[in-house]
Amino acid sequence: MREFLIQHGAFLFWAAVAVVSLIIEAVTAELVSCWFAPSAIVSMILSGFVDIFWVQLLVFLVLSAILLAVARKLVKKRLATKGEPALNADGLIGRTGVVQEAVNNIAETGSVKVGGLVWTARSLGEEEIPPETVVAIREIRGVKLICEPVSEAQKAQNTNQNEKE
Question: Phi and psi dihedrals of 137, rounded to 5?
Answer without folding.
Answer: -85, 120
